[in-house]
Amino acid sequence: MLSSHVLDIKDLKTHFASRDVDIPAVDGVNFHVDAGEVLGIVGESGCGKSVTSLSVMGLVPSPPGKIVRGKILFNGEDLTKASERRMRKIRGNDIAMIFQEPMTSLNPVFKIGEQLIEGIRIHNKWPKKRAYERAVDMLKLVGLSRVEELMDSYPHQLSGGMRQRVMIAMAMTCDPKVLIADEPTTALDVTIQKQILNLMKRLNNELNTAIILITHDLGIVAEMCDRIAVMYAGKVVEEGSVLEIFQNAKHPYTKGLIQSVPDMRVKRDRLYSIPGNVPKPGSIKNGCPFAPRCEHAFTSCTEEMPELLMTENGQKVRCWLHQEE
Questions:
Q1: Are 241 and 40 contacting, i.e. CB atoms less than 8 angstroms apart?
Q2: I need a labelling partner for 58 at 20 to 30 A (CA). Which of 26, 72, 82, 220 fits?
Q3: Which fold has domain 7-94+176-322?
Q4: pLDDT (tens digit, 9 = 90+) per residue, 92-105?
Q5: 203: helix, coil or strand?
Q6: What does the CA dihedral 243, 221, 209, 26 come to, rounded to 10 degrees?
Q7: Residue 232's beta-bridge partner residues?
Q8: Where are the alpha helices (DSSP H) in 14-159?
Q9: How far, rounded to the nearest angstrom, does the alpha carbon of residue 104 sit from its chain's CA centroid?
Q10: What are the start-end ranges of the E strands in the chain?
Q11: Which one, of 165, 164, 172, 6, lies nearest residue 74 by Cα?
């Protein structure tokens, strides 16, 4: 039976080889996204968010990385079994990605126009003039001015916000079905952040593009997303709608993330932070990986990994505190 979701991740495991040991960077991840939906993936650095997105794109460096188990279903097609030739057709055309740092994603020795036109012509087989016109239109769509001059510029001549807009334009040139945005507003000032988020939301509404937004900023998630998947140590520990998660978070880790957000209405002498650090992938062999940092941990938490189960209100949570529900 084909999946009804535009992208459906099932039990994905991505490991990295290190000194004869496989380190599980992504350890049994499950989530899906539908057309026109915005899914937020949140968690601290080192939780496996970016490796999950690279796995979807088929860009995990091999060696040392490899997908050892699971399915990545795009409109029912399992991308883990797709050839590199097939993945080249899918990347950019059907599934596009905005990377975290645009300066390292744009080729510094080619002009902006050359990079945009090349991508359009590879996927659409258009003549150069038509590809040029499409590139100009996309740069205008993302709110850039003097685009003819911009097409003749090199990446280092642009500001961070302009480079990020170019990356969004590049990602959207072929009207992809799925857009993966990995920390798209990192290191940008709040004004540019707002403009880029508004742009992504407009593209989502107008083109019915499914967006996977990877971020650690819960304010952005609250504004942009329909659903949230919370990741910790390579696993999804909680999933639900934005309203459910923010009003009734169930996993102690999710509660800690929400509590860490400063609240202007409450005066505190010290901001809250979750004690401890994210464990190294594979370092915790038994039990819940959050147990060493959890104030509610008991015997079962250190002995056995809980399943990701659905609660009566539709949320999914991986925690022994809620297994009885």
A1: no
A2: 220
A3: Rossmann fold (3.40.50)
A4: 888 998 887 766 77
A5: helix
A6: -100
A7: 235
A8: 49-57, 84-90, 102-105, 112-124, 128-141, 147-151
A9: 18
A10: 7-18, 21-33, 38-42, 65-74, 77-78, 95-98, 178-182, 210-215, 227-232, 235-241, 309-310, 316-317
A11: 6
CA 192 to chain centre: 20
Helix (H/G/I), strand (E/B), else coil: 316? strand
Question: Can you tell me whether residue 24 is helix, strand or coil?
Answer: strand
CA distances from 153 to 116, 163, 322 (A): 12, 11, 55
Q: pLDDT-based confidence at 119, cuts 50/70/90? A: confident
- Contact predicate 261/216, CB 8 Å: no
pLDDT at 2 over 60: no
Under a CB-based contact definition with an 8 Å cutoff, are residues 254 and 237 in contact?
yes
Lookup result for tokens 């797709």 = 82
Structure tokens at 176: 């992809």
Angle (CA) 67 119 55, round 5°: 10
Which whole number is the average pLDDT over 11-17? 92
For residues 148 and 204, is the Cβ–Cβ distance under 8 A? Answer: no
Q: How far apart are CA 296 and CA 303, in angstroms?
A: 14
Query: 270-310: per-residue pLDDT in tens?
Result: 888 888 888 888 788 888 999 999 988 888 898 899 898 88
Which amino acid is located at 223 in the chain? Answer: E
